[in-house]
Design goal:
By secondary structure, the protein is of the alpha+beta class. It contains 21 helices and 20 strands. Helix 6 packs antiparallel against helix 8, helix 18 packs across helix 19 and helix 20 packs across helix 21. Bound molecules: S-adenosylmethionine.
Length: 523
């Protein structure tokens, strides 16, 4: 296998957009944990370490024209592919550098945000040291760093799977993808013959089924790197501590609320602990965490009161996530099911259903007068954690009516990056993300919806269903229902019609609201 410092380079990674990497997501986690987030209104700098095929980097650059985005990756195939997207998407605020973390250009300067996703657990210890040095040298004062990694104890019972795959792959011939296919076949063989490891670890046996559905290139990067390590939270906090960084919070947002992560039986453990570093370790044990997205700050400035938050971070906007949400609203976040109900949430729902508001505007609303600001801020944050509300970097318009009449007219895309990505990728067999400068982040679209949108933009509405069908047949991708391929032509046409109807009813209005799609109104 070809590798740089034990990291595979002969097979490219898979393209993916990760919303956790958006500046708006990182800023919100800081704000909810009472840490002043970096200001972005007048521009900011963002560095991604190990940007792979760069879809997070480029989508975020397209969604944040005031930011300057720099990506670093050692694999020249990755950086060449990103450069193509940058050129096709006319992104003048993004650039990519082919370099090892140990040998970065001298003039990189300071960044308000540094992000590394899918890197720390997969590189040799000396490269980890290089990452810590970069954090120390290049994160601006008050800047935020996002790091994701495989964590313990969630990986404890599954770690041998990685060992089996890597050891068997090393014995095989060919490139890393071929070796991974061979190793998977071996893994399935010993699982199906009920090797004692699988008999003793039933979760590992089911885990193998999940692996078989994954892209082989993803599996190569996840499992074949020589120095794969899963860390305890405290180990990572220790590493970044040596760079002078302090833990701020984590993503997804609900992970900042221990009561949403662990069963009520553990409440005492959390109530009696004030040290956040200890709380995080308790939480990982109680919830068996296998993956973490942590945010660190270089010299966090605290905002103890809601008034401080209104002064320092009132440029975030809140809205209700989906149309027609009603109370009581339930969400299961893995271990516990939580219910949102009561008059306070009823008022918030009414207020944020059709518009997005800043925290100061929510606090000033007539219907919420009398609720202490701290309780209200906490209710909004808990609502975000449970998926009831979403946070954006700018205001959103109201939801367009879903009647087809109001959604007639030519469909166009406002951002050249979105045009380029749709052109390159729709019906490529995977979801893709389009950038919204209203939200400051990307929004994922299934590949079928992407194909519908692409056809609408390129050739309009006439004969849409039959064009999609022709395109589908040409792509070699089978349409599926309930996990089964649909071969009957009439059934296939009906399903495509249903998908188009659903897109007009839900997908298109949402894209209009996000400012991704423009509709020329029909007079
Ligand atoms: C698993 S991929 C993650 C890619 C990307 N962050 C994403 O989420 O799609 C890890 C990336 O780190 C890069 N990488 C590994 N070691 C590196 C090093 N020493 N210097 C620079 N890049 C490195 C790899 O080439 C790869 O693209």
């Amino acid at each position: 296998m070809t590798a740089a410092d034990g990291y595979v380079t002969d097979v490219s990674y898979t393209p993916g957009f990760y919303p956790n990497m958006a500046p708006v997501a990182m800023r919100y986690v800081a704000a909810l944990n009472r840490v002043v987030p970096p200001q972005t209104a007048n521009g900011f700098r963002y560095l991604e370490l190990g940007c792979g095929l760069g879809r997070s980097l480029t989508t975020l650059a397209a969604a944040n024209p005031k930011g300057e985005f720099v990506g670093i990756d050692v694999n020249p195939n990755h950086t060449a592919s990103i450069q193509k997207d940058i050129t096709a998407g006319k992104l003048s605020n993004a650039r990519v550098i082919t370099a090892d973390f140990g040998h970065l250009p001298k003039d990189l300067g300071k960044f308000d945000f540094i992000a590394l996703h899918g890197v720390l657990s997969w590189v040799v210890p000396t490269v980890r040291d290089a990452i810590i040095s970069i954090a120390k040298k290049h994160l601006a004062s008050g800047g935020l760093l996002l790091v994701s990694y495989n964590s313990m104890p969630g990986w404890a019972a599954l770690q041998p799977i990685r060992g089996i795959l890597r050891q068997y792959a090393l014995l095989r011939q060919g490139d890393s993808a071929q070796r991974m296919r061979d190793a998977l076949a071996y893994l399935v063989f010993i699982r199906d013959k009920q090797a004692k490891y699988f008999e003793d670890n039933p979760r590992a046996a089911t885990y193998v089924d999940g692996l078989l559905k994954q892209d082989v290139n993803y599996l190569v990067h996840e499992y074949l790197n020589e120095h794969w390590t899963s860390f305890y939270f405290s180990e990572v906090a220790g590493m970044f501590g040596t760079a002078g960084l302090a833990f701020v919070g984590s993503l997804p947002v609900f992970t900042n609320f221990w009561d949403l992560c662990v069963r009520p039986d553990f409440q005492e453990l959390f109530r009696t602990t004030t040290n956040r570093l200890v709380t995080e370790s308790h939480k990982d044990f109680c919830a068996n965490t296998a993956f973490r997205w942590d945010i660190y700050s270089n010299g966090p400035r605290m905002m103890p009161e809601v008034a401080d938050r209104l002064r320092e971070a009132d440029d975030l906007f809140f809205h209700v996530t989906a149309a027609n949400v009603t109370l009581p609203y339930q969400s299961n976040l893995g271990v516990v099911t939580s219910t949102v109900q009561g008059p306070l949430y009823q008022s918030l729902l009414g207020l944020l259903a059709d518009k997005s508001l800043r925290l100061s505007e929510i606090l000033a609303a007539n219907e919420l007068k009398g609720t202490p600001p701290a309780d209200l801020a906490r209710a909004v944050d808990a609502g975000v954690a449970m998926g009831l509300f979403d946070v954006t970097a700018g205001p959103l318009g109201s939801r367009p009516a879903t009647s087809t009449a109001s959604l007639e007219g030519a469909v166009s895309l406002t951002n050249p990056f979105n045009k380029a990505i749709l052109h390159l990728d729709s019906l490529g067999g995977r979801a893709l993300a389009l950038a919204s400068s209203s939200t400051g982040t990307g929004h994922t679209l299934g590949d079928f919806d992407a194909a519908i949108l692409h056809e609408l933009v390129e050739r309009g509405r006439d004969g849409l269903t039959s064009r999609i069908e022709t395109r589908l047949l040409g792509s070699g991708r089978a349409l599926q229902q309930n996990g089964q391929p649909v071969s009957d032509a009439a059934e296939r046409s009906q399903l495509i019609q249903q998908s188009c109807d659903a897109f007009f009813a839900n997908g298109l209005p949402q894209l209009v609201r996000l400012g991704i799609v423009d509709l020329d109104s029909v007079v």
